[in-house]
Amino acid sequence: MKIGSGAGGVLAFAGFMAAIPAYAEVTTSPGESSSKPVVISPTTPPLTAPPPMITPADTLVGVEPMSWNLTQVSANSGAPNASAEIVALAIATPGDSRRAVDGGNVVGDQPAGPPDSTITGPEEPRSLRWADHVPRNQAAYRGFWAQAGTVKTEALIGVAYFTLISAHKFFEDTAPFHFKNEGWFGKDTENIGVDKLTHAFDTYLLAEFFHSRIHERTGASQGDAITGAIIASGLMAFNEISDAIEPDSGYSLQDVTMNIAGATLSVLRNTIPGMKEKFSFKIEIVPNNNVYSIAGKSHYAQQRFMFSLKGAGFEKLHNTPLRFLDLQLGYFASDFSNADKAAGVDPKRHLFIGVGLNLGELLFSNSRSRIGRAAYTVLDYFQIPYTSVRYDTTGQFDF
Hints:
Blueprint: H1 5-8, H2 10-16, E1 87-89, E2 98-102, E3 105-110, H3 144-148, H4 152-166, H5 194-217, H6 224-240, H7 253-271, H8 275-278, E4 279-285, H9 297-301, E5 303-310, E6 325-334, H10 338-342, E7 348-357, H11 359-364, H12 370-378, E8 388-392, E9 397-398
Antiparallel strand pairs: 1-2, 2-3, 4-5, 5-6, 6-7, 7-8, 8-9
Helix pairs in contact: 4-6, 5-6, 5-7, 6-7
């Protein structure tokens, strides 16, 4: 597929993505309905799980049975509130009744229990992670269409964007709809596979964007990552249609496959606990003589793609300088321009390993400003050039 605008839009998409807080509050007032989704704001603290379910048979005096949902606490719920502490005094003589005392006042008789027994409070709150979701049977938005409806404006903007960048093709020489086998990463392919990684990354970035919006607006309803991935894959498949009418191009199933791979990676990252904190898929764009090329082979020659294992995601490294470093595994290609081909230069594929500086963690990990959070988010997808040391399969060090 001949794309330039789509790959060139990587920075625009990344800049558009706001820093979405990774947590929502997870409590309800006793007896409150779970029909309202949570609204996550930048000031929302890390969410904690509420006390475990108390069955009616075990209900203490003054305590309502509770279940957790990702909904906000209603200020006017009118539900009875339990006091901060309920102490049960046990009578030592077997067969006697036990009285529950709330703040020094006897509030009722309870069944007799073993001598010196004490009713303890709830377990310690448990911090929920980004990958934790409300089970589907408790979620406010349970299906694809309900979740997709929360981002219909963004989806329509995506359709308009891809239509705009491809519309000119319909006014040029066209051919009937047809397919084209573009290959994968072979030296005989047009761009030595870099264009395929561009497809994967662009779809991954779109899926991340849509998931973050859906995750926020549906209160982390189960399935939100899959919904975001489907929307992103659909937009990229729509964009591919314009290539199917170009005489020298065609609808590439290799491109579609890489689109799905990128979307799937986003699903895994947002559903496997700890993966978002430890792993990222990044692009690096190295300046050339024109600083930046928007399309063509020179555009692809600037790109380096990498999987990064983030030191910041490992708790044992939090108090060490290693939290600012990423381990990298990546790919790029060189010497595949038309001039190189005409001169008989052999195209080169570079599979590399390296260590990169995580500038987001270094500069913005503790930022509370909107700009700082946005910068942290962008740097989770974009590696700044010349901030890494790498060794590749051609035997060269690269910076």
